[in-house]
Automatic annotation (TrEMBL):
Gene3D superfamilies: 3.10.450.50. It comes from Cellulophaga fucicola. This is Predicted SnoaL-like aldol condensation-catalyzing enzyme. InterPro entries: NTF2-like_dom_sf, SnoaL-like. Residues 1-18 form the signal peptide. Residues 174-270 form the SnoaL-like domain. The lineage of its organism: Bacteria, Pseudomonadati, Bacteroidota, Flavobacteriia, Flavobacteriales.
Amino acid sequence: MKNSILTATMVLAIVATACKTTKTTNSESEKGKKTMDVSNQEKTLAVLKSIETGAQEPVAYINPTKYIQHNLGVADGLAGFGDLLQALPANSAKVNTVRAFTDGDFVFTQTEYEFFGPKIGFDIFRFEDGLIVEHWDNLQVNTGKSNPSGHTMIDGATKIADLDKTKANKEVVKNFVTDILVNGDMSKISAYFDGDNYIQHNPNIPDQLSGLGATLEALAKQGIFMKYDRIHTVLGEGNFVLAVSEGHFGEDHNSFYDLFRIENGKIAEHWDVVEKIAPKENWKNQNGKFNFPK
């Protein structure tokens, strides 16, 4: 029942906001100033948490006339988002955002969800003039089990550091994904790590670079290969960098979201979410999974 009420409230708010776009009153100007006082990251966290709480106010952080949806299982615009919420079982949603970062007009987050079942997700929001205008995400079922080294998909370091090294760290990740995951040039892999030191949060892979290598070798013996075809975007803040890529795991066409923590120019920690891309005939919007601004 709560989700139905939330959806109706959101739709009313969308319509009301859209109708006011051609006329600005003094009170609206004051409201706009207050909105600008809230950071884009704070707005993002509020919107995500409202999925759980049913709070109405965060809808004001979304541009109702420009909102573009890239989750292929959700219809475009705020109406599509409202329909999704309405389909949720009552009082079932839980949202625990563990990491949030800002890169220019983008905010990207890592969240533990109870959303049609337990999931781990990365979300990317693009802002224009202080309002959300575009959304991408990647979701994977959370089994709740630790990987062979005892790490979950969501635990580990959270402190953002080395803000002055953001550009350099993004370059490290871009080069790593290109050299190793796209081009498969394993002769270069050791240059990206501090010896064998490497913390892994993929639920099926243990720590250490040797652990990654052993897992990939075992999969290859079973005829299962992971191949990245291309990088679509790289976002970062300080020592954390997110790479969004497209490729194949076995026979599946996948979207790969990889979050790396960089320490002294080397990859120190890794989280990921892998999502199978639905056939195009099943898409609920035609915006594309990877259509990022150039």
